[in-house]
Write a structure and sequence with these properties.
The protein is an alpha+beta fold and about 475 residues long. It is built from 20 helices and 11 strands. The strands form 3 sheets. Strands 1, 2, 3, 4, 5 and 6 form a 6-stranded mixed β-sheet that branches. Strands 9-10-11 form a 3-stranded antiparallel β-sheet, with no helix packed on it. A two-stranded antiparallel sheet has the order 7-8. Strand 7 and strand 8 form a beta hairpin. Helix 9 packs parallel to helix 10.
Length: about 475
């Protein structure tokens, strides 16, 4: 059962906040910046209003999850820190003497209350509206890019993850007491998950039992991470891999197993749209969706900045209809072709034919493909094959026994010609300089908020992780611009 209105409790100790939590405190600034009642309005239908035990305030629990994202700690650690950190208590709207939430409530909230909610777009829309209201967003450009996130189950196996967590706990313990090396349980050397689980549980039990070492904050943090990993492995023990994750490619010879988050961001570094997909999805096809979401969130877009993945013909057509410029270079195959310099034949404009390095000119040409249908049309030029048979440069050029020798040139569409010309303008070159900003934002998400690896299994959990991380970085950016 959910109370319709939060009960305000007055405490004789509340004045401590003004003494201990300065106005410049980051969490205090967030509380002053945003009204979190939108969380209650969004989730109210997820609760029963007249039956059952009184539920924790959704705003309270949501704030706990936001703290967990901002400070990259476990459920247990964020709750424990809220016992003694007055800035946490202030942010959570607690009286100094109030008790904390049970960590298990955070898990239930994620699984039951946030399920089937469009949390990602809700949180992005909220921060964008605040940024517009505060005058933070002034540009009319959005920068597009995609960042990859490794699945929780890759590249490490379940056993490797457990071993890594156990190793981190042992190393932390040894920093404070080298004598513990003699007290640790015998490591499991077999490639057996059950044995590794047994070892991890025993390690957890021995360290936790010894209060002199487990009470040290650094040790306690690693211990809690190991506990969460053990629980997660037991819950997903039948899963050999993340069922929603797929193999994607960062380059021709580099792959990953996980997810992609496609982002749109203003020049002021406020993320305006995000779409989470499995790792194999391409970047370019997500442009229409990112543009639409950004516009729905109140962004007036006149320029889209990105890499060559976004300069496909369909994207150019779409943006031209809305009078939006695409600052993204065309694929080199369109502007230059794939041929090496030594394989490029000379064009004779007078004869309207091509000449090969040996000085032979083509004798006829034919146009292939239909206009304005699918790929570009191609002009195919034909050489006198009898000359090719006896040509001194035929090796590597003419295939012995071939009945024809041709040279094909793709015909650029009007759209491509216009885009090629646009690439040479000062406007294009100036706007392209802003593209690095989204790379920096990707780095912030990964290095500061742990976005390099999924925290749970499944695309729904990945979307939830994305929502909280983007909400956090947008709030930080708004506060920075509001100073």
């Amino acid at each position: 059962m959910l109370l319709q209105q939060k009960i305000i409790q007055f405490s004789e100790y509340s004045s401590l906040y003004d003494l201990i939590v300065p106005k410049a405190n980051f969490l205090r600034k967030i509380n002053d910046l945003i009204d979190f009642s939108f969380v209650y309005d969004e989730l109210i239908n997820k609760y029963c209003h007249n039956n059952g035990r009184t539920a924790e305030s959704p705003i309270w629990v949501f704030k706990y999850l936001l703290l967990k994202t901002i400070y990259s700690v476990s459920d247990v650690d964020v709750v424990e820190r809220s016992r003694f950190d007055m800035s946490f208590k202030y942010f959570l709207d607690m009286s100094p003497e109030d008790d904390v939430i049970n960590p298990s409530s955070l898990t239930k909230f994620r699984k039951l209350r946030l399920k089937d909610t469009d949390l990602l777009n809700l949180l992005i829309s909220k921060t964008v509206s605040i940024a517009i209201e505060k005058g933070v967003i002034r540009s009319k450009s959005i920068i597009l890019d995609a960042t990859h996130t490794l699945s929780r189950s890759n590249p490490f196996s379940t056993i490797e993850v457990l071993r890594e967590r156990s190793k981190q706990l042992r190393k932390t313990v040894y920093k404070y007491d080298q004598d513990w090396k003699e007290r640790m349980p015998k490591k499991n050397i077999d490639n057996d998950l059950e044995k590794e689980l047994t070892y991890s549980k025993e390690l957890e039990r021995i360290v936790e039992k010894e209060q002199s070492i487990s009470s040290i904050p650094a040790v306690q943090e690693k211990l809690n991470v190991l506990k969460e990993t053990i629980e997660d492995v037991q819950e997903n023990i039948t899963l050999s891999k993340d069922q929603d994750a797929k193999i994607g490619h960062k380059s021709a010879d580099s792959s990953f197993f996980g997810y992609k988050t496609h982002l749109a961001m203003t020049e002021e570094r406020i993320i305006t749209a995000a779409v989470v997909t499995s790792g194999e999805k391409g970047d370019g096809p997500e442009l229409p969706k990112l543009l639409e979401i950004s516009q729905q969130n109140g962004i007036d877009v006149d320029t889209i900045i990105g890499d060559a993945a976004y300069s496909g013909k369909e994207n150019i057509k779409l943006t031209r209809k809305q009078d939006i410029k695409i600052v993204a270079k065309l694929n080199p195959s369109i502007t230059q072709g794939f041929r090496k310099n030594e394989d490029i034949f000379d064009y004779n404009k007078d004869a309207d034919m091509f000449m090969c390095p040996a000085g032979h000119i083509t004798i006829r040409k034919a146009r292939q493909g239909q206009k304005n249908v699918g790929t570009n049309q191609v002009d195919t030029y034909y050489f006198d094959v009898e000359k090719c048979k006896t040509c001194p440069l035929r090796n590597g050029c003419y295939k012995q026994g071939a009945k024809t020798k041709t040279y094909s040139v793709s015909i650029k569409s009007d759209l491509h010609k216009e885009q090629i010309a646009f690439q040479e303008t000062e406007y294009f070159k100036e706007k392209a300089k802003h593209r690095y900003k989204i790379e920096a934002k990707n780095g912030e998400l990964k290095n500061v908020h742990g976005y390099g690896r999924a925290k749970s299994y499944g695309i729904n959990n990945m979307q939830m992780q994305s929502a909280m991380s983007i909400f956090a970085v947008n709030l930080k950016r708004i506060l920075k611009w509001s100073v």
